[in-house]
Automatic annotation (TrEMBL):
Transmembrane segments: 84-101, 113-136, 142-160, 165-183, 195-221, 241-262, 320-341, 348-364, 370-388, 400-419, 439-460
Residues of the signal peptide: 1-31
Protein name per Swiss-Prot or TrEMBL: Glycosyltransferase RgtA/B/C/D-like domain-containing protein
Organism of origin: Dyadobacter koreensis
Keyword Cell membrane: no
Coiled-coil stretches: none
The keyword Zinc belongs to this UniProt entry's keyword annotation: no
Record keywords, A-Z: Membrane, Signal, Transmembrane, Transmembrane helix
Length: 472
C-alpha cells in the first residue's frame, strides 16, 4: 500500500492543499436536512443516541413526509441502520461541544445537525483520497492521479452527495476502500487479513445500502482469476480464507436481520417493508418490477430526451438526469474503458461487473434515480485517467484532446454547481452555499481533528522507537 511519506515535499503540500480546499467546499455547500430521506436517517440516529430506541416518533419532525415505516401503530425509520450508526461519534462530538459551552458556534443550524453533516463531508474527502491512491496503485503518475481526482470531485455528483445525510457517500467510501484493498492482495493466503478487511468493509456497507452485498461475488471471482494455476489447484490454502470471509459477510447480514427483528419483530432484510407510501417495497420482486429501458435512461442517458443536456431546470432534485448527461466528462471515461481493458483486463472486468450489478438493480427498481447507482460512480469514472494519459502522451492529439477535456470539465462542473444550488434546502443560487454561517464549527472541528491525528502519529512513532531500541 502507498504511504504518505513516499511523496515529495511539494507533492505533500499539493495533496494537503487539495484536501483542505475540498473540505471547505463540501462543508459550506451543505445545508442541513434536504428532505425526508436524510431526515429519516437523522431521526433514527438521534433516537438511537438519545433514547436507545429505533422508534422515531419524538424526532419525526425531521422526516417531514415519506421515508418512514409504520407497524403496530409505531413510527420507525425505513432506512437501513448503517448510516445512523456512523453518525453516533458525531452526535457525541456535538454533545461534547454543548458540555463545554460551544453549542452555538454556528448561527443558523442546530449543533447536532451541523455535527452529523461532517459525516458525508469526511466520507467524501476520504473517498477522494482513496480514489487518488487507486490511481497511483494502478501506475499513474502523481500529476495525472491528482488532476483526475480533482476533476472527479468537482465535475460529478460526488460534490452533491458530500453535502447531505443520504446514505450514498458512506456507501461509496466503504466499497471503494474495499476495492483498493482488494487490489493490494497479491496472495490470498499470505494476505488473508486484507481479504478479511475487504470483506468486512463490503459487509458493513450492506448495513448502509443492501445491494452492496452482491459486490462480494465479483471480488471473490477476481481473487480466483488472478491466482496462478498452481495456487488455484492448491485449494486447501485459499478455500479456508474464502470460508472465513463468507462467515464475516454473514455476520453483517445477521446484524441487519437482528436490527430489523428488534425494530419490526421480524427477520427481514428490507427496512422499508412497512413504508405505507411505497407499497411496492413489501418485496424484492415488487420493488424490482420497473421498466428496465426507462430506468436505464434515467440512470445513464435517455436518448428520447436529449434536450435534458441543455434544459438543466428539468434535471434537479429527484429528477437529476443520467450520469452521462449530468457529467458529460464521463464520456471521456467511456472511451478510457477500451484502454483500461487492454492494460488491466481483470481490474477492468471487476469494475464492469460492479457497475453492471448496480445499474441492473437501479434500472429495474420502480423508482429509478441516478443517486441509486452513486456507489459505483468512481468505477465508472476511473478509466478517465487512461484517456487523460493517452492524450498527454500524444503529440498529435494533445492540444485538441485537452481542449475537449477542458470544455467537458467546465460544462460538467457548472451543471454540478447548478444541481447543488437548486437541490432541496440548498437555497437556490441566491442563498447557496448555506453553511457559510457555520464556519466557526468547521474551524474548531478540523483543528481538533488535526490535533488528534498529530498526537496519534507522535504516539505511534514513539512506540516504534521503543520497540526498535528494545530489540537492539
Amino acid at each position: 500500500m502507498i504511504k504518505f511519506s513516499t511523496f515529495t515535499s511539494m507533492q505533500r503540500k499539493l495533496l494537503l492543499s487539495t484536501i483542505s480546499a475540498f473540505a471547505l467546499l463540501f462543508f459550506v455547500s451543505s445545508a442541513g436536512i434536504n428532505g425526508s430521506n436524510d431526515g429519516s436517517h437523522f431521526a433514527l440516529a438521534k433516537s438511537i443516541y438519545y433514547n436507545q430506541s429505533t422508534e422515531i416518533k419524538p424526532f419525526f419532525n425531521y422526516v417531514k413526509c415519506c421515508d418512514y415505516a409504520v407497524k403496530n401503530g409505531k413510527l420507525y425509520s425505513d432506512r437501513l441502520p448503517g448510516n445512523a450508526l456512523l453518525m453516533m461519534p458525531f452526535l457525541a462530538y456535538s454533545n461534547l461541544l454543548k458540555l463545554i459551552g460551544l453549542s452555538h458556534l454556528g448561527q443558523k443550524f442546530e449543533t447536532d445537525l451541523v455535527a452529523v453533516t461532517l459525516l458525508p463531508n469526511l466520507c467524501a474527502l476520504l473517498g477522494l483520497v482513496v480514489l487518488f491512491l487507486l490511481f497511483r496503485q494502478s501506475g499513474f503518475d502523481f500529476f495525472i492521479s491528482l488532476l483526475s481526482t480533482i476533476i472527479y470531485g468537482l465535475a460529478t455528483l460526488h460534490w452533491l452527495e458530500a453535502t447531505h445525510l443520504f446514505s450514498h457517500m458512506p456507501s461509496l467510501l466503504f466499497v471503494l476502500t474495499a476495492i483498493y484493498i482488494t487490489f493490494s492482495v497479491n496472495d490470498v493466503q499470505k494476505n488473508q487479513n486484507l481479504v478479511y478487511m475487504a470483506t468486512a468493509l463490503v459487509g458493513f456497507s450492506t448495513l448502509i445500502e443492501l445491494q452492496n452485498i452482491l459486490f462480494l461475488g465479483p471480488v471473490y471471482l477476481y481473487f480466483l482469476v488472478t491466482m496462478g494455476r498452481r495456487d488455484f489447484l492448491n485449494y486447501k490454502k485459499w478455500l479456508p480464507v474464502f470460508i472465513k470471509s463468507i462467515t464475516i459477510a454473514g455476520f453483517f447480514i445477521g446484524c441487519l436481520l437482528f436490527y430489523n427483528y428488534l425494530t419490526f419483530d421480524e427477520f427481514i432484510l428490507k427496512s422499508n417493508t412497512y413504508n405505507p407510501n411505497f407499497p411496492e417495497e413489501k418485496s424484492f420482486s415488487e420493488s424490482l418490477g420497473g421498466d428496465f429501458v426507462a430506468g436505464l435512461g434515467k440512470l445513464l442517458i435517455d436518448f428520447a430526451n436529449l434536450d435534458l443536456y441543455y434544459k438543466w431546470y428539468e434535471g434537479k432534485n429527484n429528477d437529476i438526469s443520467g450520469l452521462l448527461i449530468t457529467s458529460p466528462i464521463l464520456w471521456i471515461s467511456m472511451i478510457g474503458f477500451f484502454l483500461f481493458v487492454k492494460k488491466a483486463p481483470y481490474k477492468a472486468l471487476l469494475f464492469i461487473a460492479l457497475i453492471t450489478i448496480s445499474i441492473l438493480i437501479g434500472a429495474f427498481h420502480k423508482t429509478a434515480l441516478v443517486r441509486h447507482i452513486f456507489t459505483i460512480q468512481p468505477f465508472f469514472f476511473f478509466p478517465f485517467a487512461y484517456s487523460l494519459q493517452s492524450v498527454l502522451r500524444s503529440e498529435k492529439y494533445r492540444k485538441p484532446g485537452m481542449i475537449m477535456i477542458t470544455i467537458l470539465f467546465l460544462i460538467s462542473t457548472a451543471r454540478i454547481y447548478y444541481i447543488n444550488a437548486t437541490f432541496w434546502g440548498h437555497g437556490g443560487s441566491r442563498d447557496f452555499p448555506q453553511f457559510k454561517t457555520e464556519l466557526p464549527f468547521f474551524i474548531i472541528f478540523y483543528i481538533s481533528l488535526i490535533g488528534i491525528v498529530w498526537l496519534c502519529r507522535s504516539y505511534l512513532r514513539s512506540s516504534e522507537k521503543i520497540i526498535t531500541s528494545s530489540r537492539s
